[in-house]
Amino acid sequence: MFLMDVKEETKYTLMPIVKVIEVIASSDKGIDDAIRQGVAEASKTIRNIDSVYVKDIKAHIKDGNVTSFGCICKIAFRVD
Taking the model in full, what pTM does it have? Predict the structure, then answer.
């Protein structure tokens, strides 16, 4: 009787894990600045930020004038 020992090498592809957090940011200058400030603040404690999705935008009004802008952002980053 002939027995054969066959070892298969299995290759695994690592799939990156992406986490999404939601932040609220605001600015007196505009929506663009609010988004940039939100990402800048999040990047102080989070590495590997890949993208930001703006979920909602609003403007605060006082006496008929826009006083500040706000946005709700979803920030995606890769987990180590």
Answer: 0.76
